[in-house]
Amino acid sequence: MSRHKTILFACGTGIATSTAVNVAVTEAMKKRGLTFNAQQAKATEVPGLADSVDFIVSTTPISASVTKPVIKGLAFLTGIGKDKVLDEIEAQLRK
Fold first, then answer.
1. Which residue range(s) make up the domain with 43?
2. Tell me, what CATH number does 26's domain have?
């Protein structure tokens, strides 16, 4: 039995775009038969939280010191390349 993975959604404030991306990813992954735990944070909080999550989806640059995989979430704001990003997220969840 695989454990439930945790995604950290990050943006500049930890409120606006990270919430929009969290909702979009949750809905898309449900359609793909996947669930996960979600956390949200400000980009500045990510280095302190990264060890407790499996990977990060961010709409803003993240510190290079973070060693967990970071998926760029700007596609959810622009709509360009969104399916590719969803495929990346699915691949991380299925690892």
1. 6-94
2. 3.40.50.2300
pLDDT at 1: 47
The pTM for the full model equals 0.93
pLDDT tens per residue, range 4-33:
899 999 999 988 999 999 999 999 999 999
> How many helices (DSSP H) and strands (DSSP E) are in the chain?
4, 4
Residue 83: what are its φ and ψ, rounded to 5°?
A: -60, -40
Total domain count, the chain: 1
